């Protein structure tokens, strides 16, 4: 029985409900009247339900599809403007006791090099990341209570926040680790994490159990209910994701929106972010079974329909995707991307080489952060290294209120420009700096509130004169 307010995974992600929605969408994919009604609701930019969203995803009417893309772009523009927040993953350890069939870190993979960073190695990695210009990290680690217990993760977070190299600083540490207890989530909150990220991989219970035959992650309910426990532990920014290509994409698309609805209804705050990774080739993983199961076209439509369904949720695309694909989805709703990523343990300090097989997946977009920043600005985007909300205590419902009030434009935009200015001063090549300075001058004019605009101009002049870390 479907119940959005239930604490039970199998009730808030009801298989029966998803199947009914998929059937309804299939019946209505050419029904102009039904689709128009959904589009009318979507134009209010307050979101649509999972049942409505899957109809849009399935829609086969070309003119309505064009309208879906237009609307996704408008929503992206309205809430996120032309800003793209930058981050990098930091792999701490690839020891893992789980048996996930699509991940090379699975416990049975005997020919992968197992590594865990010491605190000294964490320092080296973080300094390398700071020297690239990163301010926001997503920590990644396998699940292994012996090699990577929570205490190890907490120690790493502490180390990361303590490192101030030249003008660098990591100002927000997001964490992507295995589902755990309320008590552990409380400790992560106390350690000052930003978002807690946990990918569901797939919402289809049987397929989930097949793909996770061994280890603690094989417990579907414990994994699916993790975000509720994280919120009970005081973490109010959580990040959802499915790994597209593991299961029928229509099923998982519907499931992830139901999960977002559950968090909003049951915990009062929807997800802070949704990630849209697709399965990639990796060591000891059968490429014929998992090879980007969804086409680029469907991937783009998923991004657009998610943007329409959950306008208040940031959307992330990683370097799993090529520069070309990333370019195609940016304007449809992506608000955060990674840049200059290394997906191996220790890969920032030491260049990854052919011998090193500790990477979790092949990176498609191998450009440096500087190149990605340059590319974004060429496309008319403002790369942002902003971490202001979390540091000003604007998390959870306080963050959502600001976003919904659309006042965020007076916040995000100046913050984006100021953090971009820091990047240009400290890490950019002369060519990138030249483009960036022009962009900042143009974009400052777009800040609607005059007092904020003047203040931002002052801060930018101060940054030029060597000061750092201003925020609204
Ligand atoms: Fe371990 Fe995560 Fe890989 Fe599964 S996906 S094997 S839990 S690192
Ligand atoms: Fe994100 Fe807040 Fe910065 Fe805007 S002001 S980019 S919402 S951290």
Describe it.
The protein has helices at residues 9-12, 15-28, 32-42, 50-58, 62-80, 119-132, 150-162, 182-190, 205-211, 220-224, 226-232, 249-267, 296-309, 323-333, 369-378, 388-391, 396-404, 409-426, 430-444, 450-464; strands at residues 83-93, 136-141, 172-176, 193-197, 238-241, 273-275, 314-317, 336-338, 382-384. With 472 residues, the chain is of the alpha/beta class. The chain has 20 helices and nine strands. It has an eight-stranded parallel beta barrel with strand order 1-2-3-4-5-6-7-8, surrounded by seven helices. Helix content is 48%, strand content 9%. The N and C termini lie far apart (46 Å). It is globular, with a radius of gyration of 21 Å. The structure holds iron/sulfur cluster (2 copies). One iron/sulfur cluster (SF4) is lined by residues 96, 98, 100, 103, 105-106, 142-143, 178, 217.
Please describe the topology of this protein.
Layout (H helix, E strand, L loop, with lengths): L8 H4 L2 H14 L3 H11 L7 H9 L3 H19 L2 E11 L25 H14 L3 E6 L8 H13 L9 E5 L5 H9 L2 E5 L7 H7 L8 H5 L1 H7 L5 E4 L7 H19 L5 E3 L20 H14 L4 E4 L5 H11 L2 E3 L30 H10 L3 E3 L3 H4 L4 H9 L4 H18 L3 H15 L5 H15 L8
Parallel strand pairs: 1-2, 1-8, 1-9, 2-3, 3-4, 4-5, 5-6, 6-7, 7-8
Helix pairs in contact: 2-4, 2-12, 3-5, 4-12, 4-13, 5-13, 6-7, 13-14, 15-19, 18-19, 18-20
The site of one iron/sulfur cluster has 10 residues, from loops.
């Amino acid at each position: 029985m479907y119940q959005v307010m239930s604490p039970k995974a199998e009730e808030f992600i009801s298989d029966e409900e998803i199947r009914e929605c998929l059937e309804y969408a299939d019946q209505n994919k050419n029904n102009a009247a039904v689709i128009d009604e959904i589009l009318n609701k979507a134009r209010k930019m307050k979101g649509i339900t999972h049942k409505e969203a899957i109809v849009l995803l399935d829609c086969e009417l070309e003119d309505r599809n064009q309208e879906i893309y237009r609307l996704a772009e408008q929503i992206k523009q309205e809430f996120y403007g032309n800003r793209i927040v930058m981050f990098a993953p930091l792999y701490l350890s690839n020891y893992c006791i789980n048996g996930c069939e699509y991940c090379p870190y699975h416990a049975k993979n005997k020919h992968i090099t197992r590594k865990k960073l010491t605190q000294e190695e964490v320092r080296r990695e973080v300094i390398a990341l700071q020297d690239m210009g990163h301010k926001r990290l997503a920590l990644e680690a396998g699940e292994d209570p012996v090699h990577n217990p929570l205490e190890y993760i907490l120690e790493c977070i502490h180390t990361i926040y303590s490192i101030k190299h030249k003008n660098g600083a990591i100002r927000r540490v997001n964490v992507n680790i295995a589902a755990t207890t309320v008590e552990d989530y409380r400790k992560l909150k106390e350690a000052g994490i930003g978002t807690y990220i946990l990918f569901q991989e797939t919402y289809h219970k049987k397929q989930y159990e097949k793909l996770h035959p061994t280890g603690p992650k094989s417990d579907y309910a414990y994994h699916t209910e993790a975000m509720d426990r994280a919120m009970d532990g005081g973490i109010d920014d959580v990040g959802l994701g499915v790994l597209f290509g593991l299961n029928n994409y229509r099923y998982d698309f519907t499931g992830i929106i139901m999960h977002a609805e559950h968090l909003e209804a049951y915990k009062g705050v929807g997800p802070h972010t949704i990630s849209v990774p697709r399965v990639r080739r990796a060591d000891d993983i059968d490429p014929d079974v998992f090879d980007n199961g969804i086409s680029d076209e469907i991937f783009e439509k998923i991004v657009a329909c998610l943007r329409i369904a959950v306008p208040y949720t940031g959307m992330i695309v990683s370097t799993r995707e090529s520069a070309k694909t990333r370019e195609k989805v940016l304007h449809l709703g992506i608000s955060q991307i990674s840049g200059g990523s290394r997906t191996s343990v220790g890969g920032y300090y030491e260049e990854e080489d052919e011998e090193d097989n500790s990477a979790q997946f092949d990176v498609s977009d191998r450009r440096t952060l500087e190149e990605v920043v340059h590319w974004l600005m060429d496309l008319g985007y403002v790369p942002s290294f902003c971490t202001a909300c979390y540091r000003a205590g604007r998390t959870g419902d306080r963050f959502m209120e600001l976003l919904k009030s659309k006042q965020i434009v007076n916040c995000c935009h100046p913050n984006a420009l100021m953090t971009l200015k820091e990047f240009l001063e400290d890490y950019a090549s002369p060519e990138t700096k030249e483009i960036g300075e022009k962009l900042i001058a143009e974009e400052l004019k777009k800040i609607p509130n005059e007092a904020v605009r003047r203040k931002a101009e002052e801060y930018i002049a101060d940054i030029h004169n060597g000061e750092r870390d201003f925020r609204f």
